[in-house]
Amino acid sequence: MTYLVVAYSIVWLIMFGYIYSLGKKQTKLLKEIEFLKEMENEH
User: Fold this and answer.
1) What is the pTM of this model?
2) What residue intervals traverse the membrane (predicted)?
């Protein structure tokens, strides 16, 4: 039973880490899109 709890904990940690990294990537992409829109509006 202990192994089951450890396995589920590891899976959940991996999932949360993956979701967190996706969120950071999305934030970075949104900032880049805003920058590109500003550059386009200047011309």
Assistant:
1) 0.71
2) 6-23
